[in-house]
Amino acid sequence: MNSTMGKILTVDLSKGLIRTRVTPKEWIELYTGQKGLATRLLMEDLDPSVDPLSAENRLVLATSIMAGTIVSCSAKLAVAAKSPQTGTISDGSVGGHIGAELKYAGYDGVTITGRAKNLQYLYIDPDRVELRDAGQLKGLGAFASETKIKQMIGDDQVKILTIGPAGENLVRFACICSEHYRQLGRGGLGAVMGSKNLKAIAIRGWLDVRVADIEKCMAVAAEAHARDNILDPENDMYVYGTPVLVDMAQESGLLPTRNFQIGRFEGSKRINGETLKALRKNKKACFSCGIACGNYVQVNGSTVEGPEFETIAICGSNIANGDPKLLIELNALCDDMGMDTISTGGVLACMMEMTEKGIHDFGIRFGDTPKAIEMVRQIAHLQGVGKDAALGTLALAKKHGAPQLAMQIKGMELPGYDPRGSWGMGLAYATAPRGGCHMTTYPVALEAWGNLDPFTFEGKAELISTGQNAQFAKFSMGICDFWPIESKTLGKLFEATYGGSWPEEKVNLTGERIFNLQRMFNVMAGFTGKDDRLPPRFHEEKLTEGPPEGIEMTEQAFTATLKEYYDLRGWDEQGRPTVETLSRLGIEEELIERYRKSLK
Amino acid sequence: MPLRLKLSDCTGCQLCQLACSAVHEGAFNPEKARLTIIHEYTEEGIHIASKHCIFCKKCEEACPVGAISNNGRWMIVDHQICIGCGDCVRACPKDVIYLNENRKSIICDLCGGSPKCVKWCPKSVITLKEKAS
Asked: A105, A340, A441, B51: which sits with the fewest CB atoms below 10 Å from its CB?
């Protein structure tokens, strides 16, 4: 198969067994790679009702057909597991080099099961795959962990995924860190690594990636890059990176502020694109990426790639932190401890609101960022109230009788767009397989910053479902979110790398298939339509500034749209894909049969 | 006529290496490129370094069989003559020469005067120096 390495690595940590298997061609045809392949690998003989922190849960890595090629924005690696934060399927992706490196090492994917007896790391190169002792890495922050692994291996070009203390301590929103400055943030996959006693995965490769037609691949890639301004030095993602969104969100009145109580932040100018650009040291790209969105900033000895918009919103305005230096310090600490900045900020904001409302005094209030930074350490090390906070916003707020103050969906804290300012985004959040996530589709660009009315659900069910399908295809085929590529172009690139015929409809159908596959997992894990809900605040309280001022997004309107969405997707009234729908999408009979049995 | 890299503008994407290996080796493999972008990870961020041919001609001097020559603009290796001894690899002060699977010396030939690394660099970091220094 063109542009695959033909092999998947399987590792059983309990038995110390390492095997390889052939990459099934039908999986590439049906699910293509990355997100899709990771989902399929995860679902193979895994019981979706498994305890996410048990040895039975599986951690899956998957690369893509485009990874390792000259196609821009293609090096991202997908990692998936059942999430200890939500209980849903959860996959995320990380940039840098590691997605391409895994391919150069000879593998399309890796599945890891079991639990090692002692802390270990996995080393992968084309000649050797070994489980090695990681006792020396215990408790190390992500940065020190990587540095130490490179010393131990004696190769400073090895690419690494590692967890920090938060992952070792099973903080439910622990992330996986890579190449010092990049994170696979969401869903608590770092805690899954921690539960397996797996501190890190180190990868080094030097094999060829061979595509269907290399001249065609280069020509199609060059044409697509040029047409979509990927290499344009004026591209906002290069000039500013994601912080460009701060002013836009503020203007649109949807910048989460003070735990989503309001949608504008008085200190937004101090944490916007211009301010952060002034603090920037340099720009760096992921492997093969012509855009180079990465901003490297440094203050008081803390260096981060970022802060990215989501971090600015949730660890900035959402905790009323208008100090860019403290924001960077907080970001750097989360990166080193190995904690998702979005969920961390969400937890902090919830604690602040509970404190200010007299529900429980956590000793942190909005705007008191130094104390918030101290709380991050307590969470990572499970000290004091940090131990409760490490379970996530929903568990913490429930414990204190205030679940309505947890700004989360399915247990995952919300990112940087108040859905009252972009109703389609609310529907996207509610239906995202991994919980409160902005990555399944991005209607905010059309609603708040485009020509669509943000304050209606009319037409949104179709907008969101088709958008999600296209996005799932894009990720699975291997392209980063920051290339707003059309499915037609995606198909052409896939034809040149993998081969065959991939018209737009087939690309979108592939995305729809993968979206439904993830929904199947969640249904089998016990989720229903009742879980596709927004926190009550978004229906009960109106925003008071900017375009959304005074507009009510009723729960009734939302649930009616949800039903319309289920109908469009071919799901029943409880949000479960019907067997007919799954058959239409070409999902394998064996999986459908397992799913059908689980419904009884 | 060596390449000039303005590393302060380099984002480290390595599209140059991918283009190089694609054009010369028919595969995507940065390890087989004739120039290398190196990421040095430090606590102060990622520092980029590079390795590329500076047209010093030390390989030509070192070659015991006269397989390496130059045309005043780039190096030329005659694989019919090359014996795969590796003397050029050891003589290269920039560590950019390697022996391929057939033990033949691989040296940057500027793609015959129109380097693909220059063409593919998204930030115009790589240019051709008109005169050898």
From this structure: B51
10 Å CB burial of residue A505 (0-12, 13-18, 19+) is: exposed
> What's the token pair of residue A349?
């904001």
Rounded Cα distance between A149 and A509, Å, is 42
Chain B residue nearest residue A105, CA to CA = B29
Separation of alpha carbons B100 and B85, rounded Å:
12
Q: What is the pLDDT of residues A480-504, one digit of tens each?
A: 999 999 999 999 999 999 999 999 9
User: Using an 8 Å Cβ cutoff, are A195 and A171 in contact?
Assistant: no
Q: Count the neighbouring beta carbons within 10 Å of the beta carbon of residue B119.
A: 14
Q: What are phi and psi of A374, to 5 degrees?
A: -65, -35
Q: Are strands A198-203 and A120-124 parallel, antiparallel or unpaired?
A: parallel
CA distance A154 to A140: 19
Mutation site, B24, B46, B100, B116, interface A, largest A CB count within 10 A: B46
Asked whether B18 and B30 are in contact (CB, 8 A), the reply is yes
Side chain identity, residue A346: G
Q: Is A157 exposed, middle or buried, given 0-12, 13-18 or 19+ CB atoms closer than 10 A? A: middle
The distance of Cα A98 from the centroid of its chain, to the nearest Å, equals 16
Judged by a CB distance cut-off of 8 A, whether residue B39 touches chain A is yes
Per-residue buried b or exposed e for A524-539, using 16+ beta carbons within 10 Å of the residue's own CB: bbebebebbbbbebbb
What's the CA gap between A503 and A492, in Å, rounded?
Answer: 8
**Interface residue B49 vs chain A (CB under 8 A):** no
* Chain A residue at shortest CA distance from B27: A210
Q: Are B57 and A236 in contact, with CB atoms under 8 Å apart?
A: no
Does an H or E element contain A63, and which? none
List pLDDT tens digits, range B75-115. Answer: 999 999 999 999 999 999 999 999 999 999 999 999 999 99
**For the purposes of burial, counting CB atoms within 10 Å of the CB of B1, is it exposed (0-12), middle (13-18) or buried (19 or more)?**
middle
ipTM: 0.95
Could you tell me which chain A residue has the CA closest to the CA of B25? Answer: A208
Which pTM does this prediction carry?
0.97
Q: Does the pLDDT of residue A574 top 90, yes or no?
A: yes
**What pLDDT does residue B131 have?**
57
pLDDT at position B38, please? 96
CB < 8 Å to B122, chain A? 72, 225, 230-231, 290-292
Q: Which residues of B touch A210 (CB under 8 A)?
A: 26-28
* pLDDT mean across residues, chain A: 97
Contact criterion met (CB below 8 Å) for A266 and A423:
no
Q: Based on the number of CB atoms within 10 Å of its own CB, is A224 exposed (0-12), middle (13-18) or buried (19 or more)?
A: buried
Q: Please answer yes or no on whether A156 and B25 come within 8 Å at the CB atom.
A: no
